[in-house]
Design brief:
six-stranded antiparallel β-sheet, alpha+beta, 473 residues, eleven-stranded antiparallel β-sheet
Length: 473
């Protein structure tokens, strides 16, 4: 026979594993029920998804200097800073200045002394701290503006010249009077008008701006600071132009350019870096899926699906291309012939193709805001059965990726050519390529100039093919 205490325990199921506890069951005659184990309040751990610990940056990586993405963008935009004003633009500036200051144009000069990449807000703050008078220079074709800073002493001398006074008034106060500011602004507008007349459009606008240290530019925005030396008669001084890249681009797109292009490097200077460039005769292209690439072996035969010419008796009767250097940005196109005496290919040059180079890194491709990037690095990322020691590159290719198509170029490596020889090429010229149809061919992917495999040309029932001799993957 059960006791009352046993009955209460059995009814409540407090001692029976797997039976849910009845919150209203009470043992009136027995002792106080024992609380369930702490682990019973939680679901058991199960395998599967768990959060990956964020990777810690190595010591050497943390010690690297930090550069904001905006700074990298500006560095790229300012790689070809102008060498200065063109002679025509300088003449237009001198004529406008001498007209309003009643000076001799023959004794008025203007020259760019320095060009430097700077933090724009910091440079504007220095201008105000130095007590300079600051103008806002609008560039209307790009809806952007720069700052023009003039020393007060030089500005007062210009005002005196514009008013017909030979020297600065004795005991002149530090601050400009409203009349002096009006005259100086009128002088600046006259110079801007003279430049606009030279350009042929109302591109530039000037107005005096107060509180130059205020946030005129974006935070941490970088640009260029140009120091221009101006002299007329007995007066000389410096003008600082603080401009973002947009203003430089706008001035460069004007109808008549204000700035002169920097001097190009000579062929001799470039040849110190790149002495000779490879020539690669392009025979055609083919495509392979990723699954087939993983099983490539020597003696495999690959059909050239898109030959650039008919392969009949070893003769070529259509145009071929020769890629110069890395990539395919610079190519020579013409008719390839076989020299009967040497057995090597020759190219009758038809045209030279030069396209914009693909940059290895451009900040525009990688819009990486540092704050967002930092938050992403510190964020927990859910992974499936994450293993810190696992090598993702060692995994087998999945079935879905087996059908990814990879383009391969078929080419023969030829001779080398110097920049001086390339510059002297003319249409109709016969170029010895230094390669034969029997030379090893290379299979190269579009995104990597290293060969996937090398082999020899073969004929497959009238079609061009390649028998692999070496495989590098």
């Amino acid at each position: 026979m059960k006791s009352s205490g046993q009955f209460a325990d059995n009814e409540s199921g407090s001692n029976q594993p797997g039976v849910p506890r009845d919150p209203f069951a009470v043992d009136f005659f027995g002792g106080r029920p024992q609380p369930a184990a702490e682990a019973d309040h939680y679901d058991p751990k199960t395998g599967g998804r768990r959060r990956a610990a964020p990777r810690k940056k190595s010591d050497w990586f943390r010690a690297l200097p930090r550069v904001a993405n905006a700074e990298a963008e500006v560095s790229e935009l300012l790689q070809k800073l102008p060498a200065g004003l063109t002679s025509e633009a300088r003449r237009a500036f001198v004529e406008a200045l001498s007209t309003y200051c009643f000076s001799d144009p023959e004794r008025t000069t203007c020259s760019v002394r320095s060009l430097e990449e700077v933090n724009l807000n910091e440079s504007a703050g220095k201008a105000e701290a130095a007590g300079q008078i600051v103008f806002r220079l609008d560039c209307r074709n790009v809806d952007s503006a720069a700052l023009v800073a003039v020393d007060r002493q030089f500005g007062r001398a210009l005002v005196a010249a514009a008013l017909g006074e030979s020297n600065e008034p004795a005991g002149a106060p530090e601050e400009f009077s409203p009349i002096e500011m009006t005259v100086l602004e009128f002088l600046a507008l006259g110079i801007a008008g003279g430049l606009n007349e030279f350009i042929g459009e109302p591109l530039l606008g000037l107005e005096i701006r107060e509180n130059a240290a205020d946030a005129f530019f974006r935070p941490a925005e970088r640009g260029v600071e140009a120091v221009v030396e101006t002299a007329l008669d007995e007066i000389s001084g410096f003008v600082r132009i603080i401009a973002p890249p947009a203003v430089l681009n706008g001035i460069g797109r004007a109808r008549r350019g204000l700035t002169a292009e920097p001097a190009r490097k000579t062929v001799r200077e470039v040849e110190r870096i790149v002495e000779r460039l490879d020539l690669r005769l392009q025979l055609g292209a083919t495509t392979l899926d990723a699954d087939s690439l993983t099983y490539l072996e020597p003696e495999d035969i690959i059909l050239v699906e898109q030959p650039r010419n008919d392969w009949k008796n070893g003769f070529f009767d259509r145009e071929l291309e020769v890629a110069v250097g890395r990539g395919r940005n610079f190519r020579l196109r013409g008719i390839a012939r076989k020299n009967e005496s040497s057995g090597e290919f020759e190219l009758g040059l038809g045209e030279i193709i030069s396209e914009e180079a693909r940059r290895k890194f451009t900040p525009a491709k990688f819009k990486m805001d540092e704050i967002v990037q930092e938050s992403i690095e510190n964020e927990d990322v859910e992974t499936e059965n994450f293993d810190e020691n696992a090598d993702p590159g060692g995994e087998e290719i999945s079935a879905a990726l087996e059908n990814v198509q990879v383009a391969l170029r078929v080419e023969i490596a030829g001779t080398k050519m110097s920049l001086r020889e390339l510059q002297a090429l003319r249409p109709g010229q016969l170029i010895a390529l230094g390669c034969r149809p029997t030379d090893p061919v290379r299979l190269v992917t579009d995104n990597n100039e290293e060969p996937v495999a090398t082999g020899e040309l073969i004929e497959i029932e009238g079609q061009l093919g390649v028998r692999l001799l070496k495989v590098f993957i």
